[in-house]
Design brief:
heterodimer; A: 378 residues; alpha/beta; Peroxisomal Thiolase, Chain A, domain 1; 9-stranded mixed β-sheet; two-stranded antiparallel sheet; 12 strands; 20% strand; globular; B: 145 residues; mainly beta; 4-stranded antiparallel β-sheet; 10 strands
Chain lengths: 378, 145
């Protein structure tokens, strides 16, 4: 069973303090339904990804549009929430249960360091909860084990922010220099402020349907959690063991997705991956098989992930430019890749792009890998 | 850094305590896979085995494995900033997330011998100091400790 994307929609990621969760979601959902030429009664179920939205977020969004009546399921999987919603929807279509399903992600985030109900209160009281500190430890380890430098991390920020200049839906649309990145304040050494993405508000939506061979195909959506052991993994345990032989969740998800799609890293034309921080983008590139981890410095120096490089990474500007509304971020990646595969990405267009991969990793741990394929050209 | 911490309130019960020699981490060891883990739990997180026994560690032989400094108070934290944060490795390879008593990353280095202690994280309403486990450079840090 082929699952295709009939339409996509977005509410610009940014700071929208005056806009309710329902309004954010409604904007994205309405745009996706219009793009798919689908109305009330034309989809049989809805899945809503959100981490901070609270009770019945999906109902609030669809209620605002008069689109309730079918099943509406909220899905929480941290940064992968939108992908988890997509996976459930695609699976339901593949199983023959539904013909067409609405999938959306919506989030309103507090500014600054994210507070998470993941931690018991004493963990916060002890000072053991700050996400940027865990990111920093992971970045330090990656630098130590590969020879990556702070300049290399700055280069990732410069790349993504330059891409963001070309994306009208990004929050930050000003190019930055390596010197400016390294002059921004140190949040947790080695990570400077501009190397970290900003939690913000936004929504993204896609309409999935049983395919007829004309639309962008969802070739695979894989969602995996962590195998225990890594002390610096997104599961953030208080202890761990030597983890060199423990496959990280991103690599588990990628292997499963490549197998399902019958494709490999060599088949990709572009990648949207989790750049929660600049080092995370590079680690993700290794974990999804774009480059051996030890060769990451060369990957950066050769500009492999630049728009005209070997394999463009985060042409949307990534989370470093767009910000991260958790529940919406995975579907925001899908919106970008669909635009690229349809040749509708304007100044960001990767010429001839026909296969794209989207990746998220976050709290849980939850990792997702989605592979999208352009329809065969006539 | 506080003194012995013995008159302080632990930030959480059951993760560390004090014996005659000082602070101890309260851990578990799994009979099935041999792994030690922290905090204590009735089921091994690595192999799901339930034949686990109490283990304690005084932190002897700990070395520094990863470190940074937290420069702004995260939500829910009322202690002082900046503070050190990182991971130490115990003999046998167990890695423990911990506060570090030195908040200057440049003063720390990979493999540095560390000793277990406690670190203040706040003051209760009645004036009692609240402490969490922490690791300090075993030999102190020249001019910075």
């Amino acid at each position: 069973m082929r699952v295709e994307i009939a339409g996509t929609g977005l509410h610009t990621f940014g700071r929208h303090p005056e806009t309710s969760l329902a309004q954010l979601g409604a904007t994205a959902v309405r745009a996706a339904l219009e793009a798919a030429d689908v109305g009330r009664g034309d989809f049989q179920a809805a899945y809503c990804g959100t981490a901070y939205g609270g009770v019945a977020s999906g109902h609030r969004v669809l209620g605002a549009l008069g689109l309730t009546g079918g099943p509406i399921v909220d899905v929480e999987a941290g940064c992968a929430s939108g992908a988890a919603a997509l996976q459930l929807a695609a699976g339901a279509i593949e199983a023959g249960r539904y013909e067409r399903v609405l999938v959306f992600g919506v989030e309103r985030m507090p500014k600054g360091m994210i507070r998470s109900s993941f931690f018991e209160p004493w963990v916060e009281e002890a000072g053991l909860s700050p996400a940027p500190a865990y990111f920093a430890l992971r970045a330090q380890r990656l630098m130590r084990e590969t020879g990556l430098t702070k300049q290399d991390l700055a280069a990732v920020v410069v790349k993504n922010r330059a891409n963001g200049v070309l994306n009208p839906d990004a929050m930050f649309r000003k190019a930055v220099t390596p010197e400016e990145v390294l002059a921004s304040r140190v949040v947790c050494d080695p990570l400077h402020l501009w190397m970290l993405c900003s939690p913000n508000d936004g929504a993204a939506a896609v309409v999935l349907e049983r395919g007829r061979g004309r639309g962008v195909e969802v070739a695979a959506v894989s969602l995996r959690s962590h195998l225990p052991g890594s002390v610096l993994g997104e599961a953030t345990p208080l202890s761990g063991i030597p983890d060199d032989d423990i496959t990280p969740p991103t690599a588990l998800a990628a292997a499963e997705a490549y197998e399902k799609a019958g494709l490999g890293p060599e088949d990709l034309d572009l990648v949207e991956c989790q750049d929660t921080d600049a080092a995370r983008e590079l680690l993700a590139c290794a974990e999804i098989g774009l480059c051996p981890v030890g060769e990451l410095p060369r990957w950066v120096h050769e500009g492999a992930g630049l728009p005209h490089g070997r394999l463009p990474v985060n042409t949307s500007g990534g989370l470093l430019s767009k910000g991260e509304p958790l529940g919406a971020s995975a579907l925001g990646q899908v919106v970008e890749i669909v635009a690229q595969l349809r040749g509708e990405a304007g100044p960001r267009q990767v010429p001839g792009a026909s296969v794209g991969l989207a990746h998220t990793i976050g709290r849980g741990a939850n990792a997702s890998v989605t592979i999208l394929k352009a329809p065969a050209r006539p | 850094m506080s003194g012995s911490g013995r008159n302080a309130r632990p930030v959480v019960e059951g993760l560390f305590d004090f014996d005659a020699d000082g602070v101890r981490l309260l851990m578990s060891g799994c009979a099935a896979c041999g792994a030690d883990f922290f905090p204590r739990a009735p089921v091994c997180p690595y192999c799901a085995g339930s034949d686990v026994a109490d283990v304690t560690s005084a932190g002897t032989g700990a070395t520094l494995w990863a470190w940074t400094a937290v420069n702004a108070a995260p939500p829910g934290y009322g202690g002082s900033v900046p503070y050190g944060f990182g991971v130490v490795e115990l003999p046998g390879g167990v890695r423990i997330v911990t506060r570090i008593t030195v908040a200057d990353p440049a003063a720390l280095s990979l493999g540095m011998p560390m000793r277990l202690t406690v670190d203040p994280v706040g003051i209760d309403d009645d004036g009692t100091e609240v402490v969490a486990w922490a690791f300090a450079p075993a030999g102190g840090v020249e001019g910075r400790a």
